[in-house]
Amino acid sequence: MENDLYIRCKNKDRNAQRELYEQYAGRFFVTCKRYLKNDEDAEEILADSFYQIFTKLHQLNNHLVFEAWARKIVVNQCLQKLRKKQPFSISIEEQFVDLPDSEPENISEEKSILHLLNFLPEGCRTIFNLFVMEGYPHREIAEMLSISEGTSKSQVSFARKKLQELVKLQTVNS
Fold first, then answer.
1. How far apart are CA 77 and CA 73, in angstroms?
2. I want to staple 42 with a disulfide (CB 3.0 to 4.6 A). Which of 32, 72, 74, 99 is the partner?
């Protein structure tokens, strides 16, 4: 983020806030979609996240770390939404996933990955996103979700295995 845009946003300049939103909304929407299957939920969390970003921007002292700081807000908003839907838990029943019969043709690699993530159980997908996509260590994931570190590790392993199966299935059906 440019220093000028940062200062204008801190001063509650609506045009600057719109500019900031337009600059980051696409990236942050993709982050929301990795956690939430439903577009409406992702859009709601995106709006809630930007509200938090704009109201807490005064707490950020360095505009150079804005994106990482804001992404953390987005991820935390997604996790709050998942907790509200139902208490976060990993169960044996969630280990069984219906694999898709086929993959739609002509979709971009990013959309394909997002599509495949939707076939993972919610808890597994959340942990995979936190570890692989966001870079959180298993210890922090365990603390954030009130699970054991071993559960976090096993869910990432399970997710990788299932994603490999889905990629193979996608290749066969192409």
1. 6
2. 32
Q: What does residue 29 show for φ and ψ, rounded to 5 degrees?
A: -65, -40
| Distance, CA of 89 to chain centre | 18
- Residue 119 belongs to what domain range? 90-173
Contacts within 8 Å (CB) and 24+ apart, 101-109? 101/173, 102/173, 103/169, 103/170, 103/173, 103/174, 105/174
Whether residues 110 and 61 share a domain: the answer is: no
Residue that terminates a domain, selected from 85, 104, 120 = 85
Cα end-to-end span (Å), the chain: 41
118: alpha, beta or left? (left if phi > 0; alpha if psi -120 to 50): alpha
Answer yes or no: is pLDDT of 64 > 70: yes
pLDDT in tens, 128-145: 999 998 999 999 999 999
Q: How many domains does the chain have?
A: 2
